[in-house]
Amino acid sequence: MLSKKRRDIEAQLVYPTYGERFFTKPIPKFDIPENGMDPKAAYQIIHDELNIDGNPSLNLASFVTTWMEDEAKQLIIENLNKNFVDQDEYPQTGLIQERVVNMLARLCNAQDQDEYVGTATIGSSEAIMLGLLAHKWTFRKRKEKMGKDFSKPNIVVGADVHVVWEKFAKYFDVEMRMIPMKRNDYTLDVDDVRSAIDENTMCVGAVLGTTFTGQLDPIEDINNMLLEVKNEKGWDIPIHVDAASGGFIVPFLYPNLKWDFRLSQVRSINISGHKYGLVYPGVGWLLFKDKTDLPEDLIFYVNYLGGEEATYTLNFSRGSSMIIAQYYNLLRLGRNGYKRIMKNAISNAKYLISEIKKLDYFEIVNDSIKLPVVTLSVLENAGFDVYELSAKLRQRGWIVPAYNLPKNAEDTHILRIVVKENFSRDMADILLHDIKLFADELRKNERTRVATTDKNETHKHIC
Ligand SMILES: Cc1ncc(COP(=O)(O)O)c(C=O)c1O
Questions:
Q1: Cα distance from N-terminal residue to C-terminal residue, the chain
Q2: Are residues 98 and 19 in the same domain?
Protein backbone atom coordinates (compact mmCIF):
# COMPACT_ATOMS: atom_id res chain seq x y z
CA MET A 1 0.00 0.00 0.00
CA LEU A 2 1.29 3.44 -0.88
CA SER A 3 1.42 5.67 2.20
CA LYS A 4 -0.53 8.95 2.06
CA LYS A 5 2.71 10.88 2.52
CA ARG A 6 4.34 9.08 -0.41
CA ARG A 7 1.22 9.53 -2.52
CA ASP A 8 1.13 13.26 -1.82
CA ILE A 9 4.66 13.77 -3.09
CA GLU A 10 4.20 11.57 -6.17
CA ALA A 11 3.18 13.51 -9.25
CA GLN A 12 -0.26 12.41 -10.32
CA LEU A 13 0.66 12.13 -13.98
CA VAL A 14 3.24 10.44 -16.16
CA TYR A 15 4.52 13.02 -18.64
CA PRO A 16 5.56 12.31 -22.22
CA THR A 17 9.26 11.56 -22.77
CA TYR A 18 11.44 10.52 -25.70
CA GLY A 19 10.49 13.64 -27.65
CA GLU A 20 6.83 12.56 -27.57
CA ARG A 21 7.78 9.58 -29.70
CA PHE A 22 5.41 7.29 -27.79
CA PHE A 23 2.60 9.48 -26.47
CA THR A 24 1.84 13.15 -26.39
CA LYS A 25 -0.42 13.75 -23.41
CA PRO A 26 0.27 13.07 -19.77
CA ILE A 27 -1.40 9.91 -18.49
CA PRO A 28 -2.80 9.42 -14.99
CA LYS A 29 -0.76 7.43 -12.50
CA PHE A 30 -3.48 6.56 -10.06
CA ASP A 31 -6.43 6.11 -12.40
CA ILE A 32 -6.90 3.85 -15.41
CA PRO A 33 -6.23 5.87 -18.58
CA GLU A 34 -9.26 6.35 -20.79
CA ASN A 35 -7.47 4.95 -23.81
CA GLY A 36 -4.66 2.46 -24.07
CA MET A 37 -1.32 3.01 -25.80
CA ASP A 38 1.16 1.29 -28.02
CA PRO A 39 2.70 -1.77 -26.31
CA LYS A 40 6.20 -0.39 -26.85
CA ALA A 41 5.22 2.82 -25.09
CA ALA A 42 3.70 0.98 -22.11
CA TYR A 43 6.77 -1.24 -21.92
CA GLN A 44 9.20 1.67 -22.07
CA ILE A 45 7.46 3.71 -19.35
CA ILE A 46 7.40 0.83 -16.94
CA HIS A 47 10.84 -0.46 -17.84
CA ASP A 48 12.41 2.96 -17.29
CA GLU A 49 10.69 3.52 -13.99
CA LEU A 50 11.83 0.12 -12.68
CA ASN A 51 15.45 1.06 -13.31
CA ILE A 52 15.17 2.95 -10.03
CA ASP A 53 14.88 -0.36 -8.18
CA GLY A 54 18.00 -1.91 -6.73
CA ASN A 55 20.05 -4.34 -8.79
CA PRO A 56 19.03 -7.89 -7.73
CA SER A 57 22.60 -9.16 -8.28
CA LEU A 58 23.86 -6.75 -5.63
CA ASN A 59 21.01 -7.52 -3.27
CA LEU A 60 22.76 -9.12 -0.31
CA ALA A 61 19.78 -8.41 1.92
CA SER A 62 17.48 -11.08 0.64
CA PHE A 63 17.63 -14.84 1.03
CA VAL A 64 15.57 -15.09 -2.13
CA THR A 65 17.10 -16.29 -5.41
CA THR A 66 18.21 -13.63 -7.87
CA TRP A 67 19.81 -15.79 -10.55
CA MET A 68 18.73 -18.88 -12.48
CA GLU A 69 20.00 -20.68 -15.55
CA ASP A 70 18.59 -19.91 -19.00
CA GLU A 71 17.02 -23.36 -19.35
CA ALA A 72 15.16 -22.82 -16.08
CA LYS A 73 13.99 -19.42 -17.33
CA GLN A 74 12.79 -21.02 -20.53
CA LEU A 75 10.67 -23.52 -18.59
CA ILE A 76 9.35 -20.68 -16.44
CA ILE A 77 8.24 -18.70 -19.49
CA GLU A 78 6.77 -21.77 -21.21
CA ASN A 79 4.57 -22.49 -18.21
CA LEU A 80 3.52 -18.99 -17.17
CA ASN A 81 0.04 -19.53 -18.61
CA LYS A 82 -0.76 -22.61 -16.53
CA ASN A 83 -2.85 -22.15 -13.43
CA PHE A 84 -1.51 -24.73 -11.02
CA VAL A 85 -4.89 -25.39 -9.48
CA ASP A 86 -6.28 -26.67 -12.81
CA GLN A 87 -4.79 -30.10 -12.21
CA ASP A 88 -7.38 -31.87 -14.29
CA GLU A 89 -6.26 -29.75 -17.24
CA TYR A 90 -2.55 -29.89 -16.41
CA PRO A 91 -2.08 -33.30 -14.81
CA GLN A 92 1.66 -33.48 -15.41
CA THR A 93 2.21 -30.27 -13.49
CA GLY A 94 0.36 -31.82 -10.56
CA LEU A 95 2.50 -34.93 -10.79
CA ILE A 96 5.65 -32.85 -10.77
CA GLN A 97 4.55 -31.28 -7.48
CA GLU A 98 4.08 -34.79 -6.06
CA ARG A 99 7.53 -35.82 -7.22
CA VAL A 100 9.12 -32.78 -5.58
CA VAL A 101 7.22 -33.40 -2.32
CA ASN A 102 8.58 -36.97 -2.35
CA MET A 103 12.12 -35.82 -3.09
CA LEU A 104 12.06 -33.26 -0.29
CA ALA A 105 10.42 -35.59 2.24
CA ARG A 106 13.26 -38.04 1.57
CA LEU A 107 15.79 -35.22 1.81
CA CYS A 108 14.33 -34.53 5.28
CA ASN A 109 14.71 -38.21 6.17
CA ALA A 110 11.03 -39.10 6.37
CA GLN A 111 10.56 -42.82 6.97
CA ASP A 112 9.73 -44.95 3.95
CA GLN A 113 6.12 -44.48 2.95
CA ASP A 114 4.04 -45.16 -0.16
CA GLU A 115 2.95 -41.59 -0.30
CA TYR A 116 4.50 -38.56 1.35
CA VAL A 117 2.17 -35.79 2.44
CA GLY A 118 2.99 -32.20 1.59
CA THR A 119 2.22 -29.37 -0.74
CA ALA A 120 3.76 -26.58 -2.74
CA THR A 121 2.97 -23.13 -1.40
CA ILE A 122 3.71 -19.56 -2.44
CA GLY A 123 6.53 -19.40 0.08
CA SER A 124 7.42 -20.34 3.62
CA SER A 125 4.84 -17.99 5.12
CA GLU A 126 1.96 -19.91 3.59
CA ALA A 127 3.67 -23.20 4.44
CA ILE A 128 4.10 -22.20 8.10
CA MET A 129 0.48 -21.07 8.42
CA LEU A 130 -0.79 -24.33 6.91
CA GLY A 131 1.55 -26.44 9.05
CA LEU A 132 0.44 -24.70 12.22
CA LEU A 133 -3.23 -24.92 11.26
CA ALA A 134 -2.81 -28.69 10.99
CA HIS A 135 -1.30 -28.74 14.49
CA LYS A 136 -4.18 -26.64 15.80
CA TRP A 137 -6.66 -29.14 14.41
CA THR A 138 -4.76 -32.14 15.77
CA PHE A 139 -4.54 -30.46 19.19
CA ARG A 140 -8.28 -29.80 19.21
CA LYS A 141 -9.15 -33.37 18.24
CA ARG A 142 -6.85 -34.82 20.86
CA LYS A 143 -8.27 -32.59 23.58
CA GLU A 144 -11.84 -33.28 22.49
CA LYS A 145 -11.21 -36.99 22.71
CA MET A 146 -9.89 -36.55 26.23
CA GLY A 147 -12.93 -34.42 27.15
CA LYS A 148 -10.66 -31.47 27.90
CA ASP A 149 -10.85 -27.77 27.09
CA PHE A 150 -9.33 -27.02 23.69
CA SER A 151 -10.20 -23.33 23.49
CA LYS A 152 -6.82 -21.90 24.50
CA PRO A 153 -4.04 -23.39 22.38
CA ASN A 154 -0.62 -21.77 22.52
CA ILE A 155 2.56 -21.96 20.46
CA VAL A 156 6.01 -21.59 21.97
CA VAL A 157 8.75 -19.97 19.88
CA GLY A 158 11.84 -17.83 20.34
CA ALA A 159 12.06 -14.17 19.43
CA ASP A 160 14.31 -15.36 16.61
CA VAL A 161 11.29 -16.41 14.52
CA HIS A 162 10.14 -14.67 11.37
CA VAL A 163 7.16 -12.33 11.63
CA VAL A 164 4.91 -14.92 9.96
CA TRP A 165 4.71 -16.83 13.26
CA GLU A 166 3.19 -13.77 14.93
CA LYS A 167 0.87 -13.34 11.99
CA PHE A 168 -0.33 -16.91 12.41
CA ALA A 169 -1.01 -16.41 16.11
CA LYS A 170 -3.02 -13.27 15.43
CA TYR A 171 -4.89 -14.39 12.32
CA PHE A 172 -5.79 -17.80 13.70
CA ASP A 173 -6.40 -16.82 17.31
CA VAL A 174 -3.68 -18.77 19.06
CA GLU A 175 -1.74 -17.56 22.10
CA MET A 176 1.84 -16.73 21.16
CA ARG A 177 4.44 -17.48 23.85
CA MET A 178 7.53 -15.81 22.56
CA ILE A 179 10.74 -16.39 24.50
CA PRO A 180 12.81 -13.19 24.43
CA MET A 181 16.32 -13.11 23.04
CA LYS A 182 19.27 -12.73 25.36
CA ARG A 183 22.21 -10.46 25.00
CA ASN A 184 24.84 -12.41 23.05
CA ASP A 185 22.56 -15.42 22.57
CA TYR A 186 20.23 -15.18 19.62
CA THR A 187 18.70 -18.64 19.42
CA LEU A 188 16.18 -20.59 21.42
CA ASP A 189 17.17 -21.94 24.84
CA VAL A 190 15.90 -25.44 25.71
CA ASP A 191 15.27 -24.66 29.37
CA ASP A 192 13.26 -21.59 28.42
CA VAL A 193 11.12 -23.75 26.15
CA ARG A 194 10.61 -26.25 28.98
CA SER A 195 9.38 -23.43 31.25
CA ALA A 196 7.04 -22.00 28.61
CA ILE A 197 5.16 -25.13 27.52
CA ASP A 198 2.09 -26.56 29.18
CA GLU A 199 -0.72 -28.96 28.36
CA ASN A 200 -2.23 -26.37 26.00
CA THR A 201 0.90 -26.06 23.86
CA MET A 202 -0.20 -27.16 20.40
CA CYS A 203 3.29 -26.81 18.89
CA VAL A 204 6.85 -25.64 19.50
CA GLY A 205 8.45 -23.72 16.66
CA ALA A 206 12.17 -24.04 15.95
CA VAL A 207 14.18 -22.39 13.21
CA LEU A 208 16.87 -23.91 11.01
CA GLY A 209 18.57 -20.65 10.03
CA THR A 210 17.07 -17.60 11.70
CA THR A 211 16.23 -14.51 9.70
CA PHE A 212 18.23 -12.33 12.08
CA THR A 213 21.59 -14.11 12.21
CA GLY A 214 21.25 -17.32 10.16
CA GLN A 215 21.88 -19.43 13.29
CA LEU A 216 20.24 -22.76 14.04
CA ASP A 217 17.99 -23.40 17.02
CA PRO A 218 19.02 -26.50 19.05
CA ILE A 219 16.31 -28.66 17.50
CA GLU A 220 17.61 -32.05 18.64
CA ASP A 221 17.88 -30.83 22.24
CA ILE A 222 14.36 -29.41 22.11
CA ASN A 223 13.13 -32.73 20.73
CA ASN A 224 14.82 -34.66 23.55
CA MET A 225 13.38 -32.34 26.17
CA LEU A 226 9.87 -32.73 24.69
CA LEU A 227 10.28 -36.51 24.78
CA GLU A 228 11.15 -36.31 28.48
CA VAL A 229 8.07 -34.17 29.08
CA LYS A 230 5.95 -36.64 27.12
CA ASN A 231 7.17 -39.47 29.34
CA GLU A 232 6.76 -37.47 32.54
CA LYS A 233 3.47 -35.71 31.92
CA GLY A 234 1.91 -37.28 28.85
CA TRP A 235 1.94 -34.04 26.84
CA ASP A 236 2.67 -34.98 23.23
CA ILE A 237 3.91 -31.65 21.84
CA PRO A 238 4.96 -31.59 18.18
CA ILE A 239 7.70 -29.43 16.67
CA HIS A 240 7.27 -27.51 13.43
CA VAL A 241 10.69 -26.75 11.96
CA ASP A 242 10.97 -23.53 10.00
CA ALA A 243 13.69 -24.58 7.58
CA ALA A 244 12.93 -21.71 5.18
CA SER A 245 16.63 -21.01 4.71
CA GLY A 246 18.41 -24.07 6.10
CA GLY A 247 16.29 -26.79 4.49
CA PHE A 248 18.30 -26.82 1.28
CA ILE A 249 21.67 -26.38 3.00
CA VAL A 250 21.92 -28.49 6.14
CA PRO A 251 20.99 -31.85 4.49
CA PHE A 252 23.75 -31.36 1.91
CA LEU A 253 26.50 -29.95 4.11
CA TYR A 254 25.85 -31.50 7.52
CA PRO A 255 23.92 -34.72 6.87
CA ASN A 256 24.62 -36.03 10.38
CA LEU A 257 23.05 -33.04 12.09
CA LYS A 258 19.62 -34.19 13.27
CA TRP A 259 16.91 -31.56 12.87
CA ASP A 260 14.37 -33.28 10.65
CA PHE A 261 11.95 -36.22 10.56
CA ARG A 262 14.59 -38.43 12.20
CA LEU A 263 13.48 -36.68 15.42
CA SER A 264 10.24 -38.11 16.71
CA GLN A 265 8.56 -34.82 17.72
CA VAL A 266 9.31 -33.08 14.39
CA ARG A 267 5.97 -33.55 12.63
CA SER A 268 6.11 -30.83 9.97
CA ILE A 269 8.71 -28.80 8.11
CA ASN A 270 8.62 -25.82 5.76
CA ILE A 271 11.34 -25.00 3.25
CA SER A 272 11.52 -22.04 0.88
CA GLY A 273 12.14 -23.27 -2.66
CA HIS A 274 12.83 -19.68 -3.55
CA LYS A 275 15.66 -19.28 -1.05
CA TYR A 276 18.44 -21.87 -1.13
CA GLY A 277 16.19 -24.11 -3.25
CA LEU A 278 17.56 -21.71 -5.90
CA VAL A 279 14.23 -20.85 -7.57
CA TYR A 280 12.89 -17.35 -8.28
CA PRO A 281 10.24 -15.97 -5.85
CA GLY A 282 6.95 -17.82 -5.60
CA VAL A 283 7.57 -21.30 -4.21
CA GLY A 284 7.73 -22.87 -0.76
CA TRP A 285 7.16 -26.41 0.50
CA LEU A 286 5.26 -27.85 3.42
CA LEU A 287 6.03 -31.43 4.43
CA PHE A 288 4.36 -33.61 7.04
CA LYS A 289 6.00 -36.53 8.75
CA ASP A 290 3.11 -38.77 7.79
CA LYS A 291 -0.52 -38.81 6.75
CA THR A 292 -1.86 -38.60 10.28
CA ASP A 293 -0.25 -35.19 10.76
CA LEU A 294 -2.61 -33.56 8.27
CA PRO A 295 -6.18 -33.91 9.57
CA GLU A 296 -8.47 -35.10 6.80
CA ASP A 297 -11.10 -32.42 7.46
CA LEU A 298 -8.65 -29.66 6.49
CA ILE A 299 -8.40 -31.07 2.98
CA PHE A 300 -10.96 -29.71 0.55
CA TYR A 301 -12.16 -31.61 -2.49
CA VAL A 302 -13.43 -29.60 -5.45
CA ASN A 303 -14.94 -30.87 -8.67
CA TYR A 304 -15.59 -27.68 -10.62
CA LEU A 305 -12.48 -27.93 -12.74
CA GLY A 306 -13.40 -31.43 -13.98
CA GLY A 307 -12.31 -34.43 -11.92
CA GLU A 308 -12.04 -34.32 -8.13
CA GLU A 309 -9.08 -32.49 -6.68
CA ALA A 310 -7.78 -32.33 -3.13
CA THR A 311 -6.42 -28.97 -1.99
CA TYR A 312 -4.69 -27.86 1.17
CA THR A 313 -3.64 -24.29 0.45
CA LEU A 314 -4.67 -20.83 1.60
CA ASN A 315 -5.14 -19.50 -1.91
CA PHE A 316 -6.67 -21.22 -4.91
CA SER A 317 -5.12 -20.09 -8.22
CA ARG A 318 -1.36 -19.84 -8.48
CA GLY A 319 1.34 -20.05 -11.13
CA SER A 320 2.93 -23.38 -12.07
CA SER A 321 6.26 -22.07 -13.28
CA MET A 322 8.18 -21.98 -10.01
CA ILE A 323 7.09 -25.49 -9.03
CA ILE A 324 8.38 -26.68 -12.40
CA ALA A 325 11.56 -24.65 -11.94
CA GLN A 326 12.11 -26.38 -8.58
CA TYR A 327 11.85 -29.75 -10.30
CA TYR A 328 14.30 -28.52 -12.94
CA ASN A 329 16.87 -27.59 -10.28
CA LEU A 330 16.53 -30.91 -8.50
CA LEU A 331 17.04 -32.86 -11.72
CA ARG A 332 19.69 -30.57 -13.10
CA LEU A 333 21.82 -30.31 -9.96
CA GLY A 334 21.19 -33.53 -8.11
CA ARG A 335 22.37 -33.86 -4.51
CA ASN A 336 25.97 -33.29 -5.54
CA GLY A 337 25.16 -30.12 -7.44
CA TYR A 338 23.35 -28.59 -4.46
CA LYS A 339 26.18 -29.67 -2.20
CA ARG A 340 28.75 -28.00 -4.45
CA ILE A 341 26.83 -24.75 -4.60
CA MET A 342 26.25 -24.62 -0.84
CA LYS A 343 29.90 -25.45 -0.13
CA ASN A 344 30.97 -22.65 -2.39
CA ALA A 345 28.57 -20.17 -0.76
CA ILE A 346 29.80 -21.12 2.72
CA SER A 347 33.39 -20.79 1.62
CA ASN A 348 32.73 -17.29 0.24
CA ALA A 349 30.91 -16.33 3.44
CA LYS A 350 33.86 -17.59 5.53
CA TYR A 351 36.23 -15.64 3.33
CA LEU A 352 34.20 -12.47 3.96
CA ILE A 353 34.32 -13.15 7.70
CA SER A 354 38.09 -13.65 7.75
CA GLU A 355 38.71 -10.46 5.74
CA ILE A 356 36.23 -8.35 7.70
CA LYS A 357 37.97 -9.44 10.91
CA LYS A 358 41.18 -7.89 9.60
CA LEU A 359 39.53 -4.46 9.53
CA ASP A 360 39.58 -2.46 12.73
CA TYR A 361 35.94 -1.55 12.78
CA PHE A 362 33.84 -4.66 13.14
CA GLU A 363 32.86 -7.58 15.26
CA ILE A 364 31.42 -10.71 13.68
CA VAL A 365 28.15 -11.60 15.39
CA ASN A 366 28.05 -15.25 14.36
CA ASP A 367 31.53 -16.56 13.79
CA SER A 368 30.84 -20.27 13.46
CA ILE A 369 28.43 -20.09 10.59
CA LYS A 370 26.44 -23.05 9.35
CA LEU A 371 24.55 -21.06 6.69
CA PRO A 372 26.26 -18.61 4.31
CA VAL A 373 25.04 -15.59 6.22
CA VAL A 374 27.50 -13.03 7.61
CA THR A 375 26.33 -10.76 10.41
CA LEU A 376 28.55 -8.03 11.81
CA SER A 377 28.28 -5.16 14.20
CA VAL A 378 30.34 -1.99 14.31
CA LEU A 379 32.67 -1.42 17.28
CA GLU A 380 31.76 1.42 19.60
CA ASN A 381 34.85 3.51 18.81
CA ALA A 382 34.54 3.08 15.02
CA GLY A 383 33.22 6.59 14.47
CA PHE A 384 30.15 5.49 12.52
CA ASP A 385 27.27 3.08 12.84
CA VAL A 386 25.78 0.24 10.81
CA TYR A 387 23.09 2.50 9.35
CA GLU A 388 25.62 4.99 7.97
CA LEU A 389 27.69 2.23 6.41
CA SER A 390 24.61 0.57 4.92
CA ALA A 391 23.58 3.89 3.34
CA LYS A 392 27.08 4.42 1.89
CA LEU A 393 27.13 0.92 0.41
CA ARG A 394 23.74 1.57 -1.15
CA GLN A 395 25.24 4.48 -3.07
CA ARG A 396 27.49 1.94 -4.80
CA GLY A 397 24.53 -0.34 -5.48
CA TRP A 398 25.16 -2.88 -2.70
CA ILE A 399 22.07 -3.67 -0.68
CA VAL A 400 23.22 -4.64 2.81
CA PRO A 401 20.51 -4.15 5.43
CA ALA A 402 21.18 -2.72 8.89
CA TYR A 403 18.80 -3.44 11.76
CA ASN A 404 18.69 -4.09 15.46
CA LEU A 405 17.83 -7.40 17.11
CA PRO A 406 14.54 -8.02 18.97
CA LYS A 407 13.74 -7.11 22.57
CA ASN A 408 16.43 -7.77 25.18
CA ALA A 409 19.10 -7.71 22.47
CA GLU A 410 17.74 -4.54 20.89
CA ASP A 411 20.93 -2.57 21.48
CA THR A 412 22.78 -4.92 19.12
CA HIS A 413 22.77 -3.29 15.70
CA ILE A 414 23.96 -5.40 12.82
CA LEU A 415 24.59 -5.60 9.09
CA ARG A 416 23.60 -8.83 7.36
CA ILE A 417 25.16 -10.19 4.18
CA VAL A 418 23.38 -13.18 2.65
CA VAL A 419 25.81 -14.98 0.35
CA LYS A 420 24.00 -16.54 -2.55
CA GLU A 421 25.07 -18.70 -5.46
CA ASN A 422 25.82 -15.75 -7.75
CA PHE A 423 27.99 -13.93 -5.19
CA SER A 424 31.44 -14.89 -6.41
CA ARG A 425 34.85 -14.52 -4.72
CA ASP A 426 35.49 -11.58 -7.06
CA MET A 427 32.32 -9.87 -5.90
CA ALA A 428 33.36 -10.57 -2.32
CA ASP A 429 36.65 -8.76 -2.98
CA ILE A 430 34.86 -5.76 -4.49
CA LEU A 431 32.46 -5.63 -1.55
CA LEU A 432 35.35 -5.83 0.93
CA HIS A 433 37.11 -3.05 -0.89
CA ASP A 434 34.00 -0.87 -0.68
CA ILE A 435 33.37 -1.68 2.98
CA LYS A 436 36.92 -0.61 3.83
CA LEU A 437 36.75 2.49 1.67
CA PHE A 438 33.50 3.73 3.18
CA ALA A 439 34.44 2.76 6.72
CA ASP A 440 37.69 4.73 6.41
CA GLU A 441 35.83 7.68 4.91
CA LEU A 442 33.16 7.68 7.63
CA ARG A 443 35.81 7.52 10.33
CA LYS A 444 37.76 10.36 8.74
CA ASN A 445 34.62 12.51 8.52
CA GLU A 446 33.84 11.78 12.13
CA ARG A 447 37.39 12.77 13.22
CA THR A 448 37.15 15.99 11.23
CA ARG A 449 33.75 16.75 12.76
CA VAL A 450 35.04 16.11 16.31
CA ALA A 451 38.15 18.23 15.66
CA THR A 452 36.06 21.11 14.28
CA THR A 453 33.68 20.95 17.24
CA ASP A 454 36.64 20.99 19.68
CA LYS A 455 38.16 23.95 17.88
CA ASN A 456 34.89 25.87 17.99
CA GLU A 457 34.46 25.06 21.66
CA THR A 458 38.00 26.32 22.42
CA HIS A 459 37.36 29.40 20.31
CA LYS A 460 34.14 30.11 22.26
CA HIS A 461 36.00 29.91 25.58
CA ILE A 462 38.77 32.23 24.39
CA CYS A 463 36.25 34.78 23.15
C1 LIG B 1 13.26 -18.22 8.86
C2 LIG B 1 12.22 -17.69 7.94
N3 LIG B 1 10.96 -18.17 8.00
C4 LIG B 1 9.99 -17.74 7.18
C5 LIG B 1 10.24 -16.78 6.23
C6 LIG B 1 9.15 -16.34 5.32
O7 LIG B 1 9.36 -16.95 4.09
P8 LIG B 1 8.69 -16.52 2.72
O9 LIG B 1 9.29 -15.21 2.36
O10 LIG B 1 9.09 -17.63 1.81
O11 LIG B 1 7.22 -16.45 2.93
C12 LIG B 1 11.54 -16.24 6.11
C13 LIG B 1 11.84 -15.20 5.11
O14 LIG B 1 12.91 -14.66 5.02
C15 LIG B 1 12.55 -16.71 6.98
O16 LIG B 1 13.81 -16.23 6.93
A1: 55
A2: no
Distance CA 85, CA 120 (A): 11
Q: Are residues 344 and 327 in the same domain?
A: no
Do residues 25 and 41 make contact, with C-beta atoms less than 8 angstroms apart? no
| 247 and 292 within one domain | yes
Tell me what pLDDT residue 115 has: 81
CA of 361 to the centre of ligand 1 (A): 30
Distance 125 CA to ligand 1 centre (A): 6
In this predicted structure, the answer to whether residue 462 has a pLDDT above a threshold of 50 is: no
**Paired strand residues for 208:** 216
Question: How far is 86 from 408, CA to CA, in rounded Å?
Answer: 48
Interval 387-407: pLDDT, tens: 999 999 999 999 999 999 998
Q: From atom 16 of ligand 1, which residue's Cα is the shortest distance away?
A: 211
Cα-Cα-Cα-Cα dihedral sign, residues 434, 350, 343, 244: negative
> Considering Cα of 346, then 60, then 123, then 279, what sign does the dihedral take?
negative
SS3 percent helix, strand, coil of the chain, rounded to 5, is: 45, 15, 40
Query: What whole-number distance in Å separates Cα of residue 181 and Cα of residue 207?
Result: 14
CATH number for 280: 3.40.640.10
Q: How do 402-404 and 413-418 pair as beta strands?
A: antiparallel
113 shares its domain with 136: yes
Helix, strand, or coil (residue 41): helix
How far, in Å, is the centroid of ligand 1 from the Cα of 190?
Answer: 23
- Which pLDDT tens digit goes with each residue over 78-125? 999 999 998 889 999 999 999 999 999 999 999 988 889 999 999 999
How many domains in the chain?
A: 3
Question: Which of the listed residues 62, 66, 121, 125 should we mutate to test ligand 1's pocket, taking the one with most ligand atoms within 8 A of CB?
Answer: 125
The pLDDT value recorded for residue 7 is: 65
pTM: 0.92
Residues 168-188 pLDDT 10s = 999 999 999 999 998 888 999
Determine the Cα–Cα distance for residues 263 and 1; give it in Å rounded to an integer: 42
The range of the structural domain enclosing residue 159 comes to: 71-331
Q: How far is CA 391 from CA 384, 402, 418, 435, in A?
A: 11, 9, 17, 11
